[in-house]
Design a protein that fits this description.
Strands 4-3-2-1-10 form a 5-stranded antiparallel β-sheet, with no helix packed on it. Strands 5-6-7-8-9 form a 5-stranded antiparallel β-sheet, with no helix packed on it. Helix 2 crosses helix 3 and helix 3 packs parallel to helix 5. With about 200 residues, the chain is of the alpha+beta class. It has 5 helices and 10 strands; from the N terminus they run H-E-E-E-E-E-E-E-E-E-E-H-H-H-H. The protein folds into 2 domains: about 90 residues; about 70 residues. The radius of gyration is 23 Å and the shape is elongated.
Amino acid sequence: MKKVMMIALSLLPLSAFAASPQPFNFICASAGGAYSDGQGGVWLQGQPATVKQMSDNYWEARQGKVVLSITRQSDGNPDISFTGPGRAHGACLPEDNRSFAPAAQGPSFSCKGVSASSMEERICKSPELSALDRKMAKTWRAALDKSGNDTTLKATQRGWIKGRDECWKETDHDACIKTQYQQRLGELQKTYGLN
């Protein structure tokens, strides 16, 4: 068995053990915004790119007809250029004023480690409920700011979460969760004059 494992490991490309491109947020002229999360994900104009490692310090990320050339310089900073259709090409420059990170898809909380069959798991699996949760998080922060960090508001929010989690008793869990979010959002928006 050990021999089989050693053979399998020797057949894996070296790039399987290599580092990912470092995080970056660049603008690439006509190719648009380029973003890396530093964990292997690269996006161009919000769309995921296919990343291929060419050496320890060089990657290519392809999205459609555009190819990003990503180099890790000796000082650790990225150097990025692009080629595209119609002989388009050029250097990409760091962008500090805009983020090209992909739009959030999940809820405001981490879905790692949520209990199976919990209401949190249902929220994680539903784009609609995840969007409501992100809206709740934004509205909640605004309400908390307007209330001056009111302890009563915090207590009522904890109570609301417990009530939302009681949706497991209902036949249609998702409809119940959606109703809970919509009602609470309406309360917070009306009470604190929020949109």
